[in-house]
Specification:
The protein has helices at residues 10-22, 39-47, 69-75, 81-90, 111-124, 177-180, 215-223, 225-230, 246-259, 275-286, 299-310, 366-386; strands at residues 2-6, 27-32, 52-53, 95-97, 102-105, 127-130, 145-148, 162-168, 171-173, 186-193, 200-207, 211-213, 236-240, 312-315, 318-320, 327-332, 350-352. It is an alpha+beta fold.
C-alpha cells in the first residue's frame, strides 16, 4: 500500500516516520514544493528549535492554543508532550527543559532535529520528492492514503471547508521615535492588552527599533490574530509595565516618596524598571516636571505616574514578521475532520495534520507539539485501517 504526504515540514516527516515504524511494508512518499525541506524547523527558536513545552504552568489548553484547544485535549490522551519528549530521546536526541518550561535539544541546534528526521527517512526508505508541487488530489490517484500537512491554502484543493489563513505570532509596529530610541530594552514582566476586548497577555517584552516584540506581544498577537487582521493591524494597545494593579503601584510610589524624598525622580526606579524606560515614562507622564524630586510630586502627578505604569497607551500601526518564522491562524475547519482520526468527513483516506488544520498555539513550543500530536494521530489512524483489529482508537 502507498501513502502520499503533501508537505515536507515537521508534521510531514514526523507522520512519515511514525507511519513507517507502524507499517514497515507501507510505501511512503513526501512531496515538498520547495527545493528544501524542514526550512521552518531550521529557523525555529532562534535556530535552536523549541520542539515542545513542559506544560507545567498550563491549567487549561485554551491558554496556549487560542484555536483548537478542545481537539488538542482529546488528542493528548493518545500522544501528548510527555510522549513527544520520550519519542525524541528514544530516537537519540537528548532534550533539556529551560526554567520557562520550553524544551530544546541539548545541542541547542535545530539541525539536531533536522538530521534526525532526514536520517530516519533514509533508514526507513521514505521517498522525499522536493520541488514537486501537488495541484490536485487527482495527481495522487495512485496512492491508497493521502495526508496533507502544509499550510491552509493547499487544503483548498481537497474541496474541504477552509478558514482563511491569517498571520499569528508577529510583532507590533508602533510609530513612536522616543520609544524606538529604547531599542534593546527588555522588561521581564508586563501585561499587554487590546482595550475594549478580552485579549491580554503577560510575560517579557522587548522594545525594538520598529515597536514591540517579545513573548508578551507574540502571545497577544496569537490570541487576537483574527481581530487584528480584520482591523488591518490598526488597533489600540495598553501596556502595564509592572503587571500590578493601581493600588499596589500607588503604594510603591508613596513608599519611595517617604523613603527618598530628596532624590531625583529618575534616580529611584519603581519595581526596578530599566532606567531608560523609566526616564521615557517620566517624560511622557510629567513633561518638564520629570526633573523634579520625589517630595515635590503633587497628587495629580502621582496619579499620572500610576496611570502610565498601569495603563500606558499606544497605537498599533501594523505587524512585523518575527524573523522568518510565523504561524498562521486558520486552515482546514475542525468540523470537517473526524476528531479521533483527523480524516476528512467527506473524502475517505484523506487526512490532515500540522499547520494545515485550524489549530495554532502561542510561542513556546506549542505549535511543534500540535504538529507531533496531529501527525502521530494520522499515522495511527492509517495503521488502524490496515490492521482494523488493533485497539489504537478504542
Amino acid at each position: 500500500m502507498k501513502t502520499a504526504i503533501v508537505g515536507g515540514g515537521a508534521a510531514g516527516f514526523f507522520l512519515a516516520i511514525n507511519l513507517k515504524e507502524l507499517c514497515p511494508e507501507m510505501e511512503v512518499t513526501i512531496f515538498e514544493k520547495s527545493k528544501k525541506v524542514l526550512a521552518k524547523v531550521e529557523v525555529s527558536g532562534g535556530g535552536r528549535c523549541n520542539c515542545t513545552n513542559a506544560f507545567a504552568s498550563v491549567r487549561d489548553l485554551s491558554q496556549v492554543y487560542p484555536r483548537g484547544h478542545r481537539l488538542m485535549k482529546r488528542l493528548f490522551k493518545r500522544f501528548d508532550y510527555r510522549d513527544a519528549y520520550a519519542w525524541f530521546e528514544r530516537h537519540g536526541v537528548r532534550l533539556v527543559t529551560q526554567e520557562d518550561e520550553c524544551i530544546f535539544p541539548a545541542s541547542q541546534d535545530s539541525h539536531t532535529i533536522i538530521n534526525l528526521f532526514l536520517f530516519e527517512a533514509r533508514r526507513l526508505g521514505i521517498e522525499v520528492c522536493t520541488g514537486h508541487k501537488i495541484e490536485s488530489l487527482e495527481a495522487l490517484s495512485d496512492y491508497d492514503f493521502i495526508a496533507i500537512t502544509t499550510g491552509g491554502g493547499t487544503a483548498s484543493m481537497a474541496g474541504v471547508p477552509v478558514l482563511e489563513a491569517v498571520p499569528s505570532l508577529f510583532t507590533f509596529s508602533i510609530e513612536d521615535n522616543s520609544l524606538h530610541a529604547l531599542m534593546g530594552t527588555v522588561v521581564e514582566d508586563v501585561t499587554v492588552q487590546i482595550p475594549g476586548t478580552g485579549f491580554r497577555a503577560s510575560g517579557p517584552l522587548l522594545i525594538t527599533h520598529w515597536g514591540m516584540s517579545g513573548p508578551a506581544i507574540l502571545k497577544l498577537s496569537s490570541y487576537a490574530a483574527r481581530e487584528l487582521h480584520e482591523h488591518q493591524y490598526q488597533m489600540p494597545l495598553a501596556v502595564n509595565w509592572t503587571s500590578r494593579k493601581d493600588p499596589e503601584i500607588l503604594e510603591e510610589l508613596h513608599r519611595i516618596m517617604n523613603v527618598h524624598p530628596q532624590k531625583q525622580l529618575s534616580s529611584i526606579r519603581p519595581f526596578d524598571l530599566p532606567s531608560r524606560l523609566w526616564g521615557y515614562l517620566l517624560e511622557k507622564a510629567l513633561g518638564e516636571r520629570a526633573q523634579n524630586r520625589w517630595q515635590n510630586l503633587n497628587k495629580k502627578e502621582v496619579n499620572r505616574l500610576v496611570n502610565i505604569l498601569c495603563n500606558d497607551p499606544y497605537q498599533i500601526a501594523g505587524r512585523a514578521a518575527f524573523k522568518d518564522e510565523f504561524v498562521t491562524c486558520g486552515g482546514v475547519s475542525l468540523t470537517a475532520v473526524d476528531p479521533n482520526t483527523l480524516e476528512s468527513k467527506d473524502i475517505p483516506h484523506l487526512y490532515f495534520a500540522g499547520e494545515v488544520l485550524d489549530i495554532d498555539g502561542i510561542t513556546g513550543g506549542f505549535n511543534f507539539q500540535a504538529a507531533w500530536t496531529t501527525a502521530y494521530t494520522v499515522a495511527q489512524a492509517i495503521h488502524s485501517v490496515i490492521l482494523p483489529n488493533n485497539d489504537t482508537f478504542m
